[in-house]
Amino acid sequence: MSLVVLAAGKGAPGVTTVAVALAAVWPRPAVLVEADSAGGDLVYRLPGADGRPLARDRGLLSLAAAAARSDRVPAALAEHVQRVAGGLDVLVGPAGLIQAAGIAASWPAMAAALAAHPDADVVVDAGRLGPDTPLPVLARADLVLLLVRPTVAAVAHLRATLGWLMPRLAGDARTADRVGVVVRADPRHAAAARREVAEVLATAGLPVPVLGAVAEDPAAAAGLAGQWTRALDRAPLVAGARDLAGALDRRLAADRDPLPASMSASPPTSRSAPTAAVDAVVDRPIRVGGR
Ligand SMILES: Nc1ncnc2c1ncn2[C@@H]1O[C@H](COP(=O)(O)OP(=O)(O)OP(=O)(O)O)[C@@H](O)[C@H]1O
Ligand SMILES: [Mg+2]
User: Which one of 35, 75, 140, 280 is at 20 to 30 Å from 165 when CA atoms are compared?
Assistant: First the structure.
């Protein structure tokens, strides 16, 4: 199964929001993993399937404890996964830098468990990249996506972040192929924004493709954080995330199986169970933290 990591440079461009959207509309079963060392937000945003708040201690913290107790990779993620109301499966992350430091020694084992997960693709929110980033997870990823807004400052920070990241992933010959950029932009200007970001990166000598865009869509972003109750399925952010998920999935399939795309393409994405989960999450009244 595939391991897809989302992250960013400076500026909180919406990594968690896009990670939730992508995992929810992913063409196959997917687990969302909150590996942002600065602290996870999901327990504050989405209620569990039973309507109660998600438990912070069941997720990466319990997985790290299992990894520390065992010499072997804790292959079974199931006992650490929680289901969000609506059906999305998540591995809740640490509360902040102190908890993240406490599990840091287990990142290599946890990364191996995520990469080897047999039952679902894994979508990771790695947050803002820097010294606290769980690099073992990025090193195992099939795809690392950096989200950026198309402003001069954000793209300059992205350039610096890529300059930091690429050498750290350089042990793997696939590095340049598996790192890509996603631009958050108004859909009317997304094509131009993608071109401009690609030009800046090319000029900087960074061979990183711009793989797609997600829509600027504050209402849907709030909905994905549990604050809005209307159907999200047709919102630009979710519809665009579905297109992006399909394109990424085809790219991952082509990497695994280098047949011509016409022979190996996945069937068109339908309204899958995880997709329905998005609406189920937001069709019913939800308050932050599920209270
Ligand atoms: N596509 C979007 N369109 C409009 N607003 C968005 C979008 N994505 C996220 N936002 C808003 O931006 C803010 C930050 O979003 P989010 O928490 O997803 O960012 P982040 O990059 O994960 O930040 P952090 O580094 O703090 O974890 C939130 O208020 C969210 O509603
Ligand atoms: Mg975040």
Answer: 75
